[in-house]
Amino acid sequence: MTDRILIIDFGSQVTQLIARRVRETGVYCEIHPFNKVTVESIREFDPRGVILSGGPASVTLDVSPRAPQGLFEMGLPVLGICYGQQTMVAQLGGKVETSDMKEFGRAFLDVKKDCSLFEGVWQPGAREQVWMSHGDRVASLPEGFEVYATSDNAPFAFIADEARRFYGVQFHPEVVHTPHGHQLIQAFTHQVCGCSGDWTMAAFRDQAIEAIRKQVGSGRVICGLSGGVDSSVAAALIHEAIGDQLVCVFVDHGLLRAGEADQVVKVFRDRFNINLVHSDASDLFLGKLAGKTDPEEKRKIIGATFIDVFEAEAKKVGGADFLAQGTLYPDVIESVSFAGGPSVTIKSHHNVGGLPERMNMKLVEPLRELFKDEVRALGRELGLPDEMVGRHPFPGPGLAIRIPGQEITREKLDILRKADTIYLEEIRNAGLYDAIWQAFAVLLPVKTVGVMGDDRTYDYALALRAVTSTDGMTADYYPFDHGFLGRTANRIINEVRGVNRVVYDVTSKPPGTIEWE
Ligand code: XMP
Hints:
Blueprint: E1 4-9, H1 15-24, E2 28-33, H2 39-45, E3 49-52, E4 78-81, H3 83-91, E5 95-111, E6 127-140, E7 146-151, E8 158-161, E9 166-169, H4 181-192, H5 201-216, E10 221-225, H6 229-242, E11 246-252, H7 260-271, E12 275-280, H8 282-289, H9 295-316, E13 322-324, H10 329-332, H11 355-358, E14 362-364, H12 372-381, H13 386-389, H14 410-429, E15 438-452, E16 455-468, E17 476-477, H15 482-495, E18 499-504
Parallel strand pairs: 1-2, 1-3, 3-4, 4-9, 10-11, 10-13, 11-12, 13-14, 16-18
Antiparallel strand pairs: 5-6, 5-7, 7-8, 8-9, 15-16, 16-17
Residues 347, 349-351, 393, 395-397, 438, 472, 509, 513-515 line the site of xanthosine-5'-monophosphate (XMP).
């Protein structure tokens, strides 16, 4: 079995980053919520080491989250980060206090002595930058622990009991603002835990193919292709495992960007030789959307019509036993909730979530263990074209939610497609595509007066949006320079008939959302 690390989650905002950093060292890991972890579950998972994440609670309160006490008797290496350090200290007999000297953001550590985690990274006497975010701090150490580095406000910034292989850090090695953080994590997974670093996408591909064959046997699998990264990689992987037992259905709702439908057909049918049904349902979708302007109504119509078309196509090809989905690890991680309570629906996302029950199919989800960047690496490993695996996310309802507050017509879709193509072309030419999470144009429900040549124009205003993000949950607008914006606006107004004004959206999320509807 591949070496694995267990991450016990205490609800930090950045727990997923710990997992990303561990995987980058070539080691498989999983995040389990603290309230589901027991000594037995750890034994069953059989990790080579355990990382305790940070979290918003305070161990100084009467009731606070804990690691299973038996963890510290299992002989496993443990790395406690921030709250993880504090609970380890408290559970092993040390003391934690609420400090007046809170530290948030950049801080500096004075390295006091050599430690196995510092090998080749930090030397005694060095002053090293780290990133802190804490109110509580360790006040006295449990037996066996020593201090290896201090910061101005955290005298126990780095502690360890090398004999038991327990390490505690007050700072966050998982964030990029701790420049050597990834090396410290690598020292933990490799030197201390003895992991070999054999988790690669090439290895994963072989294991996943075996697992798919075992799960599916001689059954048939149907996969909804959208042209997006996740479903494309899932389809290519499943096809490699079971060949013609896979049928892909591409429901073309007529709301895709320029050239997208052609690319899906070209790559999957022509290059990969995958059994692909291309269902051009644009008339049906546009018919149902006629006269509709409310965002939720549009979303619901598209979601329901998609399921109808998919189901009809599946029947035509004789049905299937399994439905393939491109579910990723972040969708699967159980979150630690302190607040509880149901959250409000901001947007009803269009996906095929209701299909498996309705069609009575089992699920094949070969990407359930992967993060997005790993899915992209796997896609390259499988030979998918770069522009497909590196593509920005694109919403299920497509361009319909980028023509906000107004009726969707072919004419408007056409204008939007042309403008969007120019915008993305300029972004690629400027070498900015990969620095941006998502970029797109929005056709506004407002016409404005302009002057072109000697003529008056009365045409659409168009908004450009580009954001940075790591998961789509929060986002900031991308700070293009004015030269770029001016050039792009100029091209759009000159080349796209129907647009005479371009504006740039500088709203972050929250309070805005990434899409306009
Ligand atoms: P918002 O607009 O909610 O979007 O900030 C967050 C991310 O989700 C994408 N998005 C969707 N994806 N079906 C999808 O598959 C949907 O209905 C949908 N709505 C928004 C959006 O593009 C962004 O990446």
